[in-house]
Amino acid sequence: MSNNPVRVGCIGMGWWSDVLADAIKRSSKIEIVSCYTRTPEKRNAFAAKYGGKAVASFEEMLADPSVEAIINTTPNNVHLETTGQAAAAGKHVFLDKPIANNVSTGRAIADVAKKHGIILQLGYQRRRESQFRWIKQQIDAGVFGKLVNAESNISRDRLGKFDAHHWRHTAEGMPGGVMLQIGIHYIDVLSYLMGPVVAVTGRAVQLVLPGDNPDVASMILEHENGALSTVNASYASAAEYYLMNIYGKEATAYYDLHNGLRLQKRHSDKVEPIPFEKNDAIRDELEEFAAVVRGNGKPETDGVHGYQSLAVVRAGTVSAREGRRVEVAEMLAKD
Fold first, then answer.
1. N or C of the chain: less Cβ packing under 10 Å?
2. What value, to the nearest 5°, has the Cα angle with vertex 218 and ends 215 and 221?
3. The sheet that has 236-248: what strands, in order across it?
4. What count of Cα atoms within 13 Å lies in the side-chain half-sphere of residue 70?
């Protein structure tokens, strides 16, 4: 059994379900056997494109004994309901980030997975990108010495490219806007590289996009080890851009979309380019999920990780709204 691809049902058909399905097609470890969304045309189109059977209800998918796991890209506000149903049916769940719109719901999702003994993995592909894996190895090997600071930027041009009423872009569906939608990815990378975040100071504004949600956000993260880092997230920029600079007492890593990865050591004016192969991070996370379903290891980003990561973003959202520094512990206790 162990070499057979994990058979999955996909629920929620949107642009991200297609991104994940495309990655599944690049893998021999997973196979799509069914799909469901409320609109028949959408589910039929998905089945025609990716294979598997378009089913008439989520219940029908869950009742199928050949379906081992669910790829869940439903809106944030139904993550608990959909994951809870899957867990009760004994199906493992790969759930796109964020786990939920508030911490208490995120915790409830982690709890329901634990209660039913299913694997819950959250989709955080950015931390898996090979440049960040390389930086992490160097940090763990002591190359950076004491970590002191980091700066990051994650930007997209979304003008004219989205529906302001879609759940991903409304204050109700995605509270915090760009901070929760894409900022969360680089907050996750910074937590992975610099260590856990204990407090956040954030600002968010709406400058370019229509609707009711911030399209630009800035956050200062305070890490447990004393280091400070910044995240700038934008949907209002002219072009897509990614930047991640990690500063240690002994070395600095510079990464950006156009210039790749470089390393500079203390007492040296030489900035060395570090060759790295761009990996298929989305396929990698799905293959890890398949491996865990087959009994190998634990997910790197499980339900607990999901709500702890969310708590950092929520601290930033509350900070931006209330104009104060917010401790992550407050969100874990009260959100």
1. N
2. 140
3. 271-274, 260-265, 251-256, 236-248, 147-157, 228-234, 216-223, 197-205, 326-327
4. 34
CA distance 38 to 14: 11
Quote the crossing angle between the two packed helices 184-194 and 130-140, to the nearest 10°. 20
Q: Which two tokens stand for residue 277?
A: 């192969």
**Helix/strand/coil for 153:** strand
**What residues pair up with 248 in beta bridges, in sequence order?**
147
| CA dihedral of 92, 77, 202, 224, whole degrees rounded to 10 | -30
Model confidence, pTM? 0.93
Task: Identify the burial level of 143 via C-beta atoms within 10 angstroms of its C-beta, where 0-12 means exposed, 13-18 middle and 19 or more buried.
Answer: middle
Q: Is 53 exposed, middle or buried (0-12, 13-18, 19+ CB in 10 A)?
A: middle
Helix, strand, or coil (residue 207): coil
Within 8 A by CB and 6+ apart from 165, the residues are: 211
**Residue pLDDT tens, the chain, 335 long:** 468 999 999 999 988 999 999 999 999 999 999 999 999 999 999 999 999 999 999 999 999 999 999 999 999 999 999 999 999 999 999 999 999 999 999 999 999 999 999 999 999 999 999 999 999 999 999 999 999 999 999 998 766 566 666 655 665 655 566 776 778 999 999 999 999 999 999 998 888 877 777 889 999 999 999 999 999 998 888 899 999 999 999 999 999 999 999 999 999 999 999 999 999 999 999 999 999 999 999 999 999 999 999 999 999 999 999 999 999 999 999 99
**Residue pair 199/327 in contact by the 8 Å Cβ criterion:** yes
The distance of Cα 306 from the centroid of its chain, to the nearest Å, equals 9
Tokens 């991104």 belong to which residue? Answer: 19
